[in-house]
């Protein structure tokens, strides 16, 4: 089982919208009695759903009773562009929250990034060393541009891993802190994967402590 720190995949956005829908349903009676006040006091996203339901009923020349509002809210299309944009905006704020949660995990040494890009003409690997002040700074920016879906997680090896999905394939990056400021005498391009792994340590244990995440199952083994 992998521990998700943040993601913007379809399931996450659907879950946000469903939470909004359930809250909007609980406000159907209040909305029928006092629409303006109910919308004004509704939380972000819930107000979008209430307004859309109200407009659908009124535009159909129907009376916006509590029952009709309930039915309309319940049948709203979760693929509606305005609703999904609102959910995506809130989810982006969640990512900023996770950055703040991890900023106190300071890094003593540079971080080695091991990546693989799935391209239309095959895969491409990369390795680089970057200075980060803390773990929160790592997830502040996406290592790959143009991704449709992104996920930051702790993988089965207890590594901090980024996964980006795009139309040509999947791009991944693993972030590990070097055990010292140097990683050996050879240039990074000439080091094999095993040497890079031995010269670094996983960030998963520190991140898991912040969230109370379980350790990876023993059967996988750690690097």
Helix amount: 40-55%
Quote the average pLDDT: 90
Gyration radius, rounded: 23 Å
Distance between the termini: 17 Å
Question: Judging from the principal axes of the Cα atoms, what is the shape?
Answer: elongated
The H/E string reads EHHHHHHEEHEEEHEH
Describe the largest sheet: 7 strands, antiparallel
In short:
The chain is an alpha+beta fold and 223 residues long. The chain contains nine helices and seven strands, in the order E-H-H-H-H-H-H-E-E-H-E-E-E-H-E-H. It is elongated and about 70 Å long.
Question: What topology does this entry show?
Answer:
Elements lengths: L2 E5 L2 H17 L1 H6 L1 H7 L4 H14 L6 H10 L5 H22 L8 E9 L2 E9 L4 H4 L10 E6 L5 E7 L2 E10 L14 H6 L1 E3 L1 H8 L12
Antiparallel strand pairs: 1-4, 2-3, 2-6, 4-5, 5-6, 6-7
Structural overview:
With 223 residues, this protein is of the alpha+beta class. It folds into two domains: 5-100, no CATH class; 107-211, no CATH class. Helix content is 42%, strand content 22%. It is built from nine helices and seven strands. It has helices at residues 10-26, 28-33, 35-41, 46-59, 66-75, 81-102, 135-138, 193-198, 204-211, and strands at 3-7, 111-119, 122-130, 149-154, 160-166, 169-178, 200-202. Strands 1, 2, 3, 4, 5, 6 and 7 form a seven-stranded antiparallel β-sheet that branches. Helix 1 (10-26) crosses helix 4 (46-59). The protein is elongated, with a radius of gyration of 23 Å. The protein starts with a strand and ends in a 12-residue tail after the last helix. The mean pLDDT is 90.
